[in-house]
Amino acid sequence: MLELSRLKNRIAVAQAKSGGKRHGALAALEYARQNWTLFLLALPGLLLIFMFSYAPMFGVVIAFEDYSPRTMFASPFVGLRNFATLFDSSIVGRLIANTLLLNFMFIIATTFFSVLVAILLNEVRSTVFKRVSQSVMFLPFFMGWTIVAMVLFGLIDYDVGTINALITKIGLDRIILTDKPEIWPFVLTLIRVWKGTGSGCIIYLAVLISVDPQLHEAAAMDGAGRWGRIRYISLPALVPVIILLVLLDIGRIFYGDFGMIYAVIGNQANLYSTTDVIDTYILRALQSNSNYGFSAAVGLSQSIMGFICVFGANWLVKKYSERRGEDYRLF
Amino acid sequence: MIEKKSLGNIIFHTINYIFLGLFALFCILPFWIMLVASFTDDMALRQNGYLPWISQFSAAAYKWVFAGQEIQIGYEVTIFVTTVGTLGSLIAMSGLAYVMSLKRLKFRNAIAFYVFIPMIFTPGIVPWFIVTRNIWGLKDVIWALIFPMMIQSFWVFVLRNFFSALPQEIIESAYIDGASDATIFYSIILPLSKPVLATVGLFMAVAYWNDWFLGVMLLDFANFRPLSVLILKMVNNAQAILTAMKQPGVTIRADTLPTLSIRMATAVITIGPIILVYPFVQRYFVQGLTLGAIKG
Asked: What's the number of CA atoms in the CB half-sphere (13 Å) around residue B105?
């Protein structure tokens, strides 16, 4: 403590000597000179964020231009024409509907299975079984989406797929999944559950482990069965976390993880009607070099809707946690 | 808690174990199919399909994979990008986070705001694509796979929160002893932060290892591709051939297809290194996922 007050003294004296009385640019320069190593530490990060997050923000001007690769950002200004085309075209409605529907299905299914598996794992008494099964469920987390796509292809392929190979062994007809766009939202949801449950249940499991075991014992003493304890102790402990995580997911509903859809669906155009989302559409447009201005307008609309959703979700989280006397917020 | 050995309990536990066991099986099944197929003879695969057991053993696929130039280069590219990317990302992010954690700095809140904005607003892929390729010139070079994803605002905040929670007295006493900011950061802060650095580093490493987006977007005519992009290409080719075969009058000779076992062998060698380190780093992953839900 003595040391600390001596330090404060020293700093005060130094400030009085060097920069204390100076003003404006000189003081700023002095401040920079004193902290230049810190500035160097932060510089690479600041620079990279500028390059890949801020610089592209100026690039949104092309959403208002008739873009051509030769003139780039100085292409002729066309006002809101790209947006007018956007709201006229039938494709945008479909893209938005698919994005929202798929993400909605993903959120519900992954949350349900993560909570279910967490509760069931929490009831398991054998530590070995618990550890092994948890590790195994976590494995899909490491598999990149491109490998997932390759293995999926190996499972459902018409000629060599595992499912068809086994089905024909017991004498049934082969099934063709790639011809049925209507079932693909469910296939994608299943993949999502497969990949996300092991990692998703960890946070819920952490909450369940922190519940005081005496609560369970007291409840059992009072005659509560297993279902009673899950219903009145485990679930209420999970509800706040579930609500917070779901709200945060809803905040990101316009973005989602399009990596999966792009890798799994690829160029199978017959499946686009139910699986094409905003991001995959833009990505294909970029690769075929077509209509950058229009794609940028689609992307900007997505960003704005996403921005509104993030703020809405944050507002809801804040309201909800204030009522519980806690302070959870995204920002 | 001690349970009674009632009939209800026994039934519950049996059903519980069966359900969780089946779910674990469902999670591991694709890995099993992949591994089995990579060790099965290609002709046998063509006849019988991808069965969950080895019908005829053969390691030919691996010989082919390791002899192939493209995949060898892909492996080197992926390893280089993952190591350099993860290290660079840790250095850049922790430096930034440390400056944001210093309470004596006037501009730390301004920096925090600057880091935070990209989390809630992104301008979309198209402007990013044009700026990255044409202004920064990141096209057909290896750095194109590294720089664009080096800073993740979310992890910067996780690091900042960890640094802020370190005992400030240590920093102050080092300051009194005359240590410079860089010395304090490299010889005091970083060694104290091993757990959080390991956690963030692992998530970044997995992200770099599996990333295909940068490879697809920023490599046009380069003579190298990361593994993930090579795999994506194989899947797309197979899909295209399937679509073509459904057209009447089109015949494709079977031996021009990328062989079935080679595809799976490539997948196995791609996922192998990460699966192998997993048991050693499991606790850091658990830590990271729990951190991820409680933001600062």
From this structure: 23
What six digits make up the tokens of A128? 């070995």
Cβ–Cβ < 8 Å for B212, A144: yes
B261 band by pLDDT with thresholds 50, 70 and 90: confident
Q: Closest chain A residue to B219 measured between Cα atoms?
A: A287
A225 — contact with chain B (CB < 8 Å)? yes
CA A165 – CA A107 distance, rounded (Å) = 32
Half-sphere exposure of A189 (CA within 13 A, CB side): 21
ipTM of the complex: 0.87
**Phi, psi at residue B57, to the nearest 5°?**
-70, 140
Side-chain-side CA neighbours of A36 within 13 Å: the count stands at 4
Which residues are within 8 A (CB) of B210 and not within 5 positions of it... i.e. 6 or more apart? A142, A143, A144, A145, A146, A147, B228
Cα separation, A40 vs A45, whole angstroms: 10
Give tens-digit pLDDT for A145-200: 999 988 888 888 777 788 888 888 887 787 887 788 888 999 999 999 999 998 88
Give the total residue count for chain B.
296
Phi, psi of A65 (to 5 degrees): -125, 160
Residue A65: beta bridge partners?
A: A77
Which among A68, A72, A142, A277 is the top mutation candidate for probing chain B, defined by the most B β-carbons within 10 Å of its own β-carbon? Answer: A142
Determine whether the interchain pair A279/B125 forms a contact, defined as Cβ–Cβ distance below 8 Å.
yes
